[in-house]
Specification:
This is Hydrophobic protein. This protein has 56 residues and is an all-alpha fold. The protein is rod-shaped and about 65 Å long.
Length: 56
């Protein structure tokens, strides 16, 4: 009974980790798309000069 519970616990842990990693990939892709849109769509500053759309 003990080894069976250990295998089930390991399977549950790996499933949870896989789901978390997949979610992190989707978040990373979303952030990359937003960054690329901001990079391409950056406009001109009201004073006439170019400006960065990010603050880092």
């Amino acid at each position: 009974m003990g080894p069976l519970l250990l295998v089930l616990l390991l399977a549950l842990l790996l499933f949870g980790a896989g789901f978390a990693l997949k979610a992190l990939w989707w978040i990373a892709i979303f952030v990359l798309v937003v960054w690329l849109i901001g990079f391409v769509a950056r406009g001109t500053h009201p004073s006439g000069g170019r400006h960065r759309w990010y603050r880092w």
